[in-house]
Give the backbone structure.
Amino acid sequence: MKEIKLFSPATVANVSCGFDVLGFCLDPIGDEMVIRKSKQLGVRIIKIVGQELPLETKKNVAGVAAEALLSEIDSEYGFEIEIYKHIKAGSGIGSSAASSAGAVFGINALLGFPFTAKELIRFAMKGEELASGAAHADNVSPALLGGFTLVRCGETPDIIQLPCPNNLHAVIIHPEIELKTADARSVLKKTIPLEKAITQWGNLAAFISALYTSDYELISRSLKDVIIEPNRSALIPYFDNIKEAAINAGALGSGISGSGPSIFALTNGEVTAEKTRDEMVKILQSAKIEHSSYVSKINMQGIQILEQR
Ligand code: ADP
């Protein structure tokens, strides 16, 4: 194989009760990437369409992640990368993760799959480190593995693939406002009252249990964030109204996607998802805030190969 074209999906991290550890993969939105072998060794990003992002290998997350992979294997080829961006950088649905994960997935395929998808996560995390200063895995894991994933941090992290109820759907609303990840990080408090910590880890444990048992009511009761959302939500105009609209439309719950400004909701079924989207969007329409919105099944596959030759 000389060349591969792939679809690298958007992802939702944090998912209310799982700050920095939980994420899931979306279906209808993602970047496309073409990666091909070259005689010239090393990694070159030769084309980026759709957004102003650096072509320089060390400044683009795709280049950094690709170099991390190549530093652990002897390759007789170099690689050229083309990125067709559809996920806006800084929108909170894993734009940098899609590029990091796509780059290592594509190169791994062109090399004959020397690494498993799980092993690729540590290379993709190097790209995330460039984007946000922290090598977090909560977006790259669902992009590479699909579905819901849980990251147990530590010296030897565990990446756990979780099951997903068949009818679970996601709604994503992206208000076109600028919210820098650094600003979203700066409002976080360094200490947590014990009472809130207990509520949060109870919610996370219950949410994960509910994924295993397809218990939509328990998903709804546990999809709550008492630690991060109360501080961050003030950075997103009309957040409380949008969330309320989602719940009133029948959503199981709603929260900030990643570090925002995108907002997600989870629903039981597509019909409720469409209704939830309509009601959430109405708030932004009446506030005259530009936005885009998506209804998505949970993407259980992750990155998809579109063409290879
Ligand atoms: P998101 O929350 O949507 O993933 P991030 O804030 O994590 O967005 O990452 C966006 C940052 O990463 C921006 O500063 C952007 O310039 C940088 N970046 C570098 N390379 C890429 C790339 N290939 N795709 C997206 N963002 C990139």
About this structure: The domain at 3-162+299-308 is CATH 3.30.230.10 (Ribosomal Protein S5; domain 2).
